[in-house]
Structure formats: structure tokens, C-alpha cells
Amino acid sequence: MSAPTEGQAPAVAPGTATQPGDPGTPGAEAAERSAGSVLQSIARSNVLVVVLAFVFAFVVGSVLILVSDVDVRAAAGYFLSRPGDLIGASWTAITEAYAAMFRGAVFDLPGARKVADDIAERGGSGLYLLGPAFLRGIKPLLETLTVATPLIIASVGMAVSFRSGLFNIGGTGQLIVGATAAGYVGFAIDLPVVIHLLVCILAAIVAGGLYGGIAGFLKARFGASEVITTIMLNWIATYALAFALTTSAFTGANKAQPTSPAIAGTARLPLLAGDQYRLHLGLVIALLAVVFLWWLMSRSTLGFRFRAVGSNPRAAEVAGIDVGRSAIGVMVVAGALVGLAGGVHVLGTEQRLTGSIAGSIGFDAITVALLGRSGPVGILLAGVLFAGLSTGGRFMESAQGVPIDLVQVIQALVVLFIAAPPLVRFLVGLGGVDRPRAPRRRTATGAHAAPVLAADAAAVAAAEGPAAPREGAHRAPVEPAADGGAQPPGPPGDPAEPVGPVDSADPADPAGTHSTVDPCGPDAPKGENA
Amino acid sequence: MKLELRGITKVFGTFVANDAIDLVVEPGEIHSLLGENGAGKSTLMNVLYGLYRPDGGEILLDDEPVRFSGPGDAMRAGIGMVHQHFMLVPPFTVAENVMLGNEPGTFGFLDLASARRTVRELSARFGFDIDPDAVVEDLPVGAQQRVEIIKALSRQAKVLVLDEPTAVLTPHETDELMGIMRQLRDEGTSIVFITHKLREVKAVADRITVIRRGRIVGTADPSADQTELASLMVGRSVALDLDKAPAAPGEVALEVRGLGVTDADGVVLLDDVDLDVHRGEVLGVAGVQGNGQTELTEALLGLQKGARGSIRLDGAELVGRSTRQILDAGVGFVPEDRTHDALVPDFSVAENLVLDQHHRAPYATGVLLHPEAVRRRATAEVEEFDVRTGSIDDAVSTLSGGNQQKVVMARALGRDLSLFIASQPTRGVDVGSIEFLHRRIVAERDKGTPVIIVSTELDEVIQLSDRIAVMYRGGILGIVPADEDRDVLGLMMAGYTAEAAREAVAAGARTSDTTLADEGDIV
């Protein structure tokens, strides 16, 4: 953030020093606000658009399946002589691939049938047959729910920050810190049965909250962009954990392996559905987290303040809300939730700390939160869906030879389509350009692959610039945000680049012109007559 | 160029924004389109400018039917538009802005010199006083507006549409703009002047068309009576004069001593202000915008962090307290810029109504919010202030400006107050609502609350106030009774002390502001 001291616009934005927006510089503040409003609009993207985005993503996915399928390519070679072959092969390839995905993610019908046949051979029937067959069949679904558990909890944390106008990219870091705290308490300390688990979970929440709070504090006190600080905190957490796993305090007796000892039995999350499944109590915690999100955002004064600050920090400040404290609060709550996700992941699913404990959950959670429109129900559905895609994709790869990368492509395409509602509407032939009080184009984005995301976050801010004048040309004022946002986002993966679009809307503040002697001072009323 | 709109109809869903509108603008006339907020004026002009496609009717230029598929077409046909919110790129220079979208030059090389020349020529011809190399964001609002006009003229606009051009201007800038409009008219440009301010219409229009709820409800001559125009516009009779009982001031409730604010660059924004406000009186703060009024109100609210001096409300010191504490002490505040400072656009009307009270009973207990209590309050306030909204759960950003202002006023006035401060209480609000809001302010005074009204519209200050403080360069130049001569107030706003101003007026001096005031005086 460039010199927060330089442009304390006195007449226009007094007291911005405590604002989480860039202190002082109205341009940057507007950019912050526009980034915030992008988040808000993501949170309200159309359900229809989400559904259609999935349809299109799967259509494109089908094409990719065809291209990668050996039989289809062979049949394409003699298309002119026997076109039926190509169509037949294509149909087979697509249906089999998606059937495999379903089988791997939801219900394993062939597996269930096999169990049923075995029992029938031995003379079983009725419930003796259906029961075990059903239990075999739902194994993929329970696995999907297991995978979904930390994803949902972490997404809830993300949703808290998104709906409060903060773009928390620090899922990975907060997750690692939570997992490490819970894991350490879990294997290094002896406590009685229930208490051990509770202490572990508490440790995860506290650690995540403190870690998230760092970014919040830096924002509130120094105006540092949370996008940058959280990304950097991700790296710090990642490498701190990697280092910790080389020390005997974390590896225990087994110094050769960079993994911790297993979590003590007293600290593990109990299994929910018996030994043959991994599903654990974390799922209940995830459901509670979702309920908590609803309560926090719509039934608590805290959430009310968070949302107010997220939408218009200046109005919130004038109404007596401490904007800086709110930013810290948001990041503490978000970090605590994501930390909880890490704790649940290590205490339930993984049962030991490894360097890759966070996997891609931290970033997937961003996508899930965006997909779920940062709402409780949406996150629940999106979380299960995403988990299903990844468990199903893994099975599809082993069963049909369709690369798992395809699933990643489909996930990325879903987000891409959701990010461009006009594209979706165009594809299904829904026009409807002029409306009264034409709202800003809903822009949304997110990304699946980790490094791309940082740049994408900035691209969101950028998208608002060029997008606004297009449809809302007749009413959108020329905003300072537009010039900053219009800059192309940096190359993916370069963590320094996103600063550009987010921050460069920092035109030298004409502070000098604010002197009281200027009778036509620049504090132009922004009155709006809609 | 003669512009004719025939039977223009524009429908949004079930809402008819324009219903078979006929309008003829003769060459070289200033045609004023008068109507309340949301009457359909802007929609009509957006149809004309090619931003909306009409659902019926046609546009004729010099009796030739034309069709525009976008603003580009409209511009090429000679229609220029100056939007209420300027369409300028702030970091660009004037010349760059003027040539934007119409870049002169060959093979991709910009011909900045010719753009500069155009700016200079137009500026000289109309006395705009605009430097082509000035950066737009450094210019005052009035000058930015002139840049917009230059932009339109540089594209040979024969019909110039000005959408609420005075909403953002100071009285002085408004005068200048009117001069420019007359000059443009005399050179043959047709001007469509959209506004809801009666006085300006009477001062400058050649013909007046009044539009209400998407229909033309009448045409009038500039000589028409103001009250008549107002009732035509609002659809019922409106009292333009506020008859209020004389104040019955009680003891001093607010004592401001030596209040000062200095910005980070060391510029003194508020200079040693002393003020007393009594219970049951309205103290008006007049002054040209940017003379410290904003800082004064914000310092009172604890929003100016480095404020010096003392503010005592009912004996309790407010300097150094947080905004929350000051609000909790019973201060009701209406900020000057509702969009920026007062409303959370995504919040519902109900949520906005409790924004500053959401943490207190009955709206919350501890961290628990009570949505029923919030809704009850909202239902009552929406009813009382006649906020036109579909539902109290609608986002406040979907309301018209006037209704948004009512929400802000309702929020501030909706509880027992120990002090009420309102900045620009009726900015962007139509005549009908102004009357209502003014009555509410006076009612608050009559309840015994000390009231501070800050307004750049002298009429408003004079109408509402019992005493008037004039601010100039961050200080209070003097406090005069509300029946002080207008010319004296005008001179004080320009920096004369009360005595000097009175002497000058006695000697026959007049301010430019009053020429306008005399042409169509509300008071």
C-alpha cells in the first residue's frame, strides 16, 4: 500500500485513518469499496446462472472426454464411412465417464449389486441382502461428505469475510495454523477422553482466529490490503509447518519422516457411521458452522456491523461503528472458522500432521464460498458438490482412464461461467439489457488453481471498472475505481501483481485543493437522483 | 436543430416510465423539463440519447425520423448530453477528455494539438475559462461541468441535454451555468434543461414542460406562478412558504468553544469556532460550500479525529469521545452526502433505519439482534415519513434520491434527541418532500431540541433558521438574525463581516446570487 500518510484528504474523508479502506486516499478507498461491492454481488449471483454454469461446464467437459478417449479418436478416423461409430463411441465415452463420476461420488450401484449377489449366493435375502448392499452402495457418498466436511467449515469462514467486504485469501494459512495447533495438542498432550478433543478443537479455533486477526490488525491499523497480507501469511504458515515437521517436537521418535505421530485416540473425532467409513463427527460441526453463519450474519449485531462496514465503511463510521475494530473482528471470526476446519481435518480425516495437511482446501473454500453465494444453504450444497466432483473424479480416473485434471477443468469452468453471467445469458439466448435502475453487472470470480487465484482476486476488482460503464453507462459516475481497476491484472502466480489493480487507484489526492479558501471546493456533492 | 419526440413510451416490466410523451424543442430555445425525482425525465432523455430503446413512438430531428441504437448515433446526429454524474476520466487532462471516444488523428497517432485548439476556441467563445491542459480531477465541479459541455459542443451538438446540471453546483456556479446556457441558446443551440428546481426554471427557461409519473401534465410559460408550477409537478397543492411559529428558545444546550481542525498538511480547516445553540431554536449555518461546514458538523459528531477545543452538550464534554458515544448521548445527525456518508446501499430500508441504533434496546440485547423490533420501527417510520418503497425489506439503493433522504431523516429524528444536526437536509429532494422535511425539522425544534441546519442553499437556511451563522474560510464570520437582508447574507458568504456587508448594501451593492433570487424568489 503506498504511503497511507500522503493523502489524508481532509475535507472529504476525515478520520479515514482508522478505516480498513486505504486510509486517506479517496481513490483507493473507492477501489476498496468497489472490490467490496464485487464481493457483495458475488454473494447474490443468480441461482439460475449457477445451475447453467454447471450445465455448460459439463458440456465442455464432455468435449474434453471425447478428445481424450481412444475409441472416439479411432472412430473419428473413419467418420465418413461409418459415422454411426463415432456417435456411438462418443455417447459411450461420455455416459461412462459421467456414470463413473456418479458412482465414485454418490452411489456405487455395481459395488452394491456385487455385495448383494455374494450374499444371495450364500442364501441371504430380504434385509440381510439389502442392508449390506445399501451400506456398500453409499460408501462413495459418505466419502464425499467426509471430504466436504473441512471444505464447508472453511467456506463458512471465507463467507464471513466476503460478506464483510474483505477478500480473505488466507484460507491455507489459517487452516494450517488451526490444524497444527489441534494436531500438536492432539499428539503431544495427554488428557481425558472428551476434554482432550474439546481442547484440541479450541486450540484450532484460537490459533486460526489469532492468525486471521493478524491480517485484520494490519488492515485496521496500517491500511494493509488483506489480499496481500493473507497471501503472505499463507506462505509463512506453510513453511513454518514444514520447518516444524523437521523438529523432534513435532516428529516425535520418527525423525526420518516429516510427519507427526498419530493423534491420540482421545482426541480423535468419533466416527459417525462405523469403521468401514471415514465419516466423522466433523460433519456435525460443519452443519453447526453453517447454522452459525446464518445466525452471525442475520441475527447478531456483530454480523450487522460486519455487513455494514463491508458495504459502505464510511456510512458505518458515521453511524458510530468502529470500522477498524470491525475489520479485526471479521478476520478473527473468519480465521477461527477456517482454523476450526483445519482442526477438524486433522482430528477426523487425516489423524496426523503432514506438510501437505491443507492440500487445496484453503483455495477450494474460496471457490465454494463464491459458488454458494456466501450463504449457508449455498455453501452446504456447493461444498458437497465440490467434494463429490473430486471423489467422483478420482474414481473416474481409475475406472475410465479419464484424467483427474478434467475434473479440475470442469471446476474451473464452473467458476468461469459464474464469473460471467452475461456470457451464460448470451449462451442460452436471454437478452434483457435495459432495465430500470439497471444494477451494476453482477461480476463474480474465483479460481480453482491456487496460484492463479491471487491474480484473480485483483481481476475481480478490475472487472468492475470496465464493466460498469458499459451497461450502466447512463448512470454510473466516472469512479476513481475505474481507472485503477482498468489495469490488466498481473501474470498469474506473481503475488506482487494484484497490488496493481487493487491499489493503483491511488491518483494523487488533490488534497491541496481542499483548502477552505476555494469557494468551489472539490468536495462535490455526490447527490443522486434516481 | 428542431427536436421532436412523438408518443415516446418506455416500459420497464409493468412500470410505465414514459407514457406517450410528446415534446417539441425549437431551435435556439431553452426548454425545461420539470418534474419530481422519478417522474421519468431521465428515462426520456436516455431514450433520446440512444441508451434505451423506446417501446413506442419516434424521434424526429428537423422533421426527419431518426433511430438511435446507441449514444454514438445520437452524438453523430448532433445530440449532446451532460449527465448529472460526469462521464469524465479524472486523471486525464481536459483536452484528452474532450477527444476521448472521438480521437482526432491518423494512423493511431493522437492529434492532441487539435483537441487543445478545440478546447481553447470553445472556451474563448463562451468565456468558459478552461485550460486544455488542466487535469480534470483538479478542477472544481463547476469547471468539470463546463468540460462536459465543451465535449458535447466539440462534437457539433445542436441539441444539448443537461440532466439536473445544478444539483452539484454552488449558487455562484449555478449563475455562471445559466449565463452559459443563455449564450448557447443565442448562438442557436437548443437546450433541454432537466431539473426540479422551480427557481432555476423560471430564471432561464423559454418554455416549460411539466412531467409527472411518466406523463406530460402540462406546459407553462416562465412567467407562470411558482406555486402553480409546484402543484402541477407534485400533483397537489404545495405550500412553498414555511409558516412556522416564532422560536421559544430555552437555555443554552450546546456550547462550542475554540473548536479547530487542522488537516495533515497543516491547512486549518476549522478555525477557532465559537457557537451557542439554545434549546428550541434552529441555528442555520450558511456559507459557500467548502468553507468548513463539513468539518464543523463532523467535529461535532466526533468524526474529526484531531479536533481541538471544547464542545459541551448539556454540560458534558464531547471532544475526545467516539462517534458512538456522541450518538448515544442523543445526537441525531444527517450527513450532507447521503449516498456516501449515510446509507448502506445493500442494506434494506429497515436495516438502514437502525444503522446507528442497532446495538441498543429494543433492537438488540447484547449481541442478539431482534429483527421484529427492527421491522416494527421501519414500518412505523416508513409510514410516518411517507417513504415510497415497495417493502421495508427492499435494498435502500432501489429507492429514489428523495426517498433515500427521507430514510436518513427518519433515522436521525426517530428517537428523543438532545441535539439535531442536519447537513443539506433536502439536497436532491423534490418540492413536495422538501415541504414535509422542513415541517419535521421545525417540529423537532418545537419539541425543545436544539437544531443545527447546514445548507448551501441560502433560501433553505433563511426559511428554517431562527439565527444564521455565516461561515467563511473555516471560521464563523458572524451570527445574524434570520430576518437579515439577503444581500447582506450574500456579501457575508463572500467574506464581508456583518457590519461591512450592511454598509455595502446600504451603499447599493448587490451580490450575483440575489439577481437570481429576485427573478424567482421563493421566500
UniProtKB/TrEMBL annotation, chain B:
It comes from Brachybacterium rhamnosum. This is ABC transporter ATP-binding protein. GO terms for molecular function: ATP binding. Residues 3-238, 254-498 form the ABC transporter domain. Pfam families: ABC_tran. InterPro entries: AAA+_ATPase, ABC_carbohydrate_import_ATPase, ABC_transporter-like_ATP-bd, ABC_transporter-like_CS, P-loop_NTPase. Keywords: ATP-binding, Nucleotide-binding. PROSITE patterns: ABC_TRANSPORTER_1, ABC_TRANSPORTER_2. SUPFAM superfamilies: P-loop containing nucleoside triphosphate hydrolases.
